[in-house]
Amino acid sequence: xxxxxxxxxxxxxxxxxxxSYASIGRASMxxxxxxxxxxxxxxxxxxxxxxxxxxxxxxxxxYxxxxxYxASQVIGSSCSPYTTPATSVTTASQTVTGxxxxxxxxxxxxxxxxPTGGRALKQVTVVVRRVANGVVGSVLARQSSxxxxxxx
Amino acid sequence: MRKRVTSVRSRISLRLxxxxxxxxxxxxxxxxxxxxxxxxxxxxxxxxxxxxARDRDVARALGAAEAGLNNGLAVLTQQDSTGTQxxxxxxxxxxxTIDGGSGTYSATKNSGLEWTISATGTSPxxxxxxKLELKLDGTQSTQSTQQSPVYGYGFFVNATTGCTTIAGNSxxxxxxxxxxxxxxxxxxxxxxxxxxxxxxxVYVGGRYTATAxxxxxxxxxKVANFTAVNGCQRQNSNVICSTSAQSKVxxxxxxxxxxxxxxxxxxxxxxxxSGDWHNPVCSVGSFVFDGDTTLNGSLGSVDLLQSxxxxxxxxxxxxxxxxxxxxxxAWDVTTKVLTISGxxxxxxxxxxxxxxxxxxxxxxxxxxxxxxxxxxxxxxxxPPAIPNGSSCTGNWDPAQGALTIVALNGxxxxxxxxxxxxxxxxxxxxxxxGAVVTGPAIADTATLSGNGKFAxxxxxxxxxxxxxxxVTTTTWKVLPGSWRQLLTGL
Lengths: 152, 490
Prior knowledge:
The structure holds two protein chains of two kinds.
Chain A (H helix, E strand, L loop, with lengths): L1 H44 L15 H4 L22 H4 L2 E5 L5 E11 L7 E12 L2 E13 L5
Antiparallel strand pairs in A: 1-2, 2-3, 3-4
Chain B lengths: L1 H16 L4 H58 L10 E9 L2 E11 L2 E9 L6 E17 L9 E3 L5 E4 L9 E3 L2 E4 L4 E2 L10 E4 L3 E3 L4 E2 L6 E6 L3 E3 L2 E3 L4 H4 L3 E5 L12 H7 L6 E4 L16 E3 L9 E6 L6 E8 L4 E10 L2 E3 L5 E12 L3 E3 L4 E3 L4 E3 L2 E3 L8 E6 L3 E3 L2 E4 L2 E4 L2 E4 L2 E4 L3 E3 L1 E4 L20 E10 L5 E3 L4
Parallel strand pairs in B: 5-7, 5-34, 6-8, 6-35, 7-10, 8-11, 9-12, 10-13, 11-14, 13-16, 18-22, 21-23, 22-24, 23-25, 23-28, 24-29, 25-30, 28-31, 29-32, 30-33, 31-34, 32-35
Antiparallel strand pairs in B: 1-2, 2-3, 3-4, 4-36, 4-37, 14-15, 17-19, 19-20, 20-21, 26-27
C-alpha cells in the first residue's frame, strides 16, 4: 500500500519536474531572445538615420513568411559622411549565439512608413527565432519601433 | 494498584515496540512533503513563465511608445516646419498600430522653438502600457542669396555663339553684357546718357564687330569699362580695341578678361507647382490663369487688356493647400490700372493688342508660358508714369512699383509701344520700330533695331528669376536629456 502511494507520488513529481524543467528552459530562451532583440534594436538607436538600412532584403521562407516582411525594404550600402554601420545591423537574417550558448536566429525588417501629415520614417522590426539542430523554430521574441531623422 | 500501573506500562511498551503500519505513515508524510515540493516548483515555474512573458510585453510596449514619439517627430517637423506655430499650439492625440501593438501620440508647443511630445505604447495583449515623453528643439538659420548681377546691365544676352545685333539710329544708353559677339551696324551706338562719363560697362564675351559707322561712347564721354574677350573688328578688319581712333571705342579701361556671369535660370514647373492656378479666388469678375491642371500652354495666347476693354477683375492665386497667397492680379477697366503682387503664371503666351494702355501698381512678376508680343500701340507704364497713347508720360521709378514679365518662349515687339517692365526672356528678344522696353532686357539672344531705351533696376520684384532671396530653415532635433519614461501603474 505504502509503496503504491510512494510510487504514484514520485511518478507525479517526476512528471511535474520534467514539465517544469522544460518550462523553465522555454522561459529562459524567451528571456534570452528578448535580450537579443533589445540589443539589436538598441544598435539602431545608436545609428544616424541614413545608416538604418539592410544590405539585402532576401531570406529563407521563415524570413519572408513573417508579417513584418515587405518586398520593398530599405536597402543601402553606405551612409556617407557617416561610417558604414556594422554588418550585424545591416544583415537581414543572422544566426547568433546567446549568452546561454544556444543558437538564435535574429531577423530584421526595415521598411519606410509615413504617418499621416508627417515625413517618412523607418520602421524596424526585430524577430528572434529558436534554432534547434539547424532548424529554425518558432518566434521567441519580437520588437518593433520607428526612427525619425530628428533623432540624430 | 502497583500491579495495574505495571500492566499499563507494559502495554504501552508493547505498542511502542510494534512497528507494523509505520511504512504507511512514512509514505503519507513523504507524499505530503513531495506535494509541497511539487506545488512550490509549479508555482516557481508559473511565476517564471509569467515574468518572462511580461518582459516581452514590456519590451514591445516600450517599442510601441518609442514609435509613437517618432511618429510625433515626423508629423511635427512637417506641420511646424517653419517654427511659426504659436506657443500653446497642440498636436491632437493620434492613434497608431505597430506590429500588433498600439499606441497614441500628442504634442504641445512650450516655447517658440520647443515642443513636448508624449506617447503611449501598449503590448499586443494589452497587459502592459508604457508612456514616454521627450522635447523637440528647433534651431533656425537664414540663407540669403543676392540678386543676380545681370540686372546691373540694362541689356544682357546669354548666348555664347552667334552675334547680338544692334542697329537703328537711337543709341543704347545702358550697360551692355553679351556673352557672344556684339555686332553694331549702321549708325548704332552705345553712349553715356546725358552729360555723364564713366558710368557704363560694355562686356562682349566674343568679338566686337562694327560695320558702317557705329561707335561706343565718345572721346569726351567715355564708358567706364569695355571688354571684348576676342578683340575688336571694324569694317571687316581687326583693330586694337584700345586704339580708339581705329576701333571707335572710347573707354577709360579696356579688358579682355572673360566674365562668369550668366543669365539666371527659370523654373516654370516649380512656379506652376507653387499655386493652384486653375482655381483662383476672385473678389471682382473672373480671370483664367490656367485652362486645365497641367502646364501645357492651355490658354494659347492671352490678350491681357483686350485693347482696354477687358472687364474688371481682382483675382488671387493661393498655394495648393490654400494657406499662402502666391500672387494677385487685378484690372480696373474704369481707371485703367493693373495691380500686381507676388508671382502670377499664365499657361499661355501674352499679347497686348491694339491700343492697350495701362499703368500698373505693385511689385510682382508675370510668367507667360509662351511668347510675349505686341504689334499695336500698347503702353504699360510703371509708377509714377501714366500712359499717353503708345508711350508713357513721366519716368518710371522702379522703387515705387516694378513688374517683371517672364517670357518662357521668346519676346517680339514691333510697332509703337512702351513697356516700363523688366523683360526676362527664354529664347529670342526682338524689338523693332518704335517699340521699347525701358527696364532691363535679359534674353538668350537679341536683336535691336529700334530704340534701345533700357535702364537698370536696383531691386527686381519678387518672383523674378535671380531675385534676391532669404530662406529661413528650421531644423528640429531631440533635446538631449529630455527623453523620460512616465509612471503608468503596471
